[in-house]
């Protein structure tokens, strides 16, 4: 199935954006949309609302609103799972052990500064794409429905 997913190059990954975008294209993704922006703390809090209870939530909000990010809508067969394969495990230390060619292995720092984000399901992909690109039309969105 052809899918869309949301990729974010996080503040610590932006200086490697060219290398990351080259990997994206080499992996057969089409970059359908791309924006560079800086989240406000309020927007970062909302984007990561599902992590509200986590001990790292306040730090995550500060980090993700602390500098520019690049957000992209990627398209490909099986895009959601494939992008998560390409970025590797959440923790860069684990990525370096188990998937040394992955983006987080190559460009990530610590557990928090892991260079990139990828949607983890079709439900979150749709929510996350709409978060940054509110005009996006999904197949289930029929005018008058
Ligand atoms: P991501 O999977 O994109 O979304 C949740 C983010 O929280 C994750 O990337 C990291 O940036 C951050 N995160 C996850 N686990 C930790 C942790 N143990 N300590 C600090 N930050 C974390």
CATH A-level architecture of the domain at 2-37 and 68-132: 2-Layer Sandwich
Q: Helices and strands: which structural class?
A: alpha+beta
Question: What is the H/E order?
Answer: EHEHHEHHHEH
Distance between the termini: 24 Å
CATH class of the domain at 2-37 and 68-132: Alpha Beta
Explain this structure.
- Belongs to the NDK family.
- This is Nucleoside diphosphate kinase homolog 5-like.
- The chain has a domain at 2-37 and 68-132: Alpha-Beta Plaits (2-Layer Sandwich), CATH 3.30.70.141.
- The protein is 39% helix and 19% strand.
- It has helices at residues 17-26, 41-47, 57-64, 79-87, 92-98, 103-107, 122-132, and strands at residues 2-9, 30-37, 69-77, 116-118.
- The protein has a four-stranded antiparallel sheet, with helices on both faces.
- Helix 2 (41-47) packs across helix 3.
- The chain binds adenosine-3',5'-cyclic-monophosphate (CMP).
- Adenosine-3',5'-cyclic-monophosphate is lined by residues 51, 56, 60, 90, 111-112, 114, 117.
Spell out the key features of this protein.
single chain; about 140 residues; alpha+beta; Alpha-Beta Plaits; binds adenosine-3',5'-cyclic-monophosphate; Nucleoside diphosphate kinase homolog 5-like
């Amino acid at each position: 199935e052809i899918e869309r997913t949301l990729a974010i190059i996080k503040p610590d990954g932006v200086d490697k954006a060219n290398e990351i975008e080259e990997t994206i294209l080499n992996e057969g993704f089409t970059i359908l949309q791309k924006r560079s922006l800086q989240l406000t703390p309020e927007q970062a809090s909302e984007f990561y609302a599902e992590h509200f209870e986590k001990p790292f939530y306040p730090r995550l909000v500060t980090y993700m609103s602390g500098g520019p990010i690049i957000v992209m809508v990627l398209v490909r067969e099986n895009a959601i799972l494939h992008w998560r394969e390409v970025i590797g495990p959440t923790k860069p230390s684990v990525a370096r052990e188990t998937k040394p060619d992955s983006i987080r292995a190559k460009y990530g720092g610590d557990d928090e500064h892991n260079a990139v984000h990828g949607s983890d399901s079709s439900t979150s992909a749709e929510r996350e794409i709409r978060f940054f690109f509110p005009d996006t039309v999904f197949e289930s969105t029929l005018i008058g429905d």
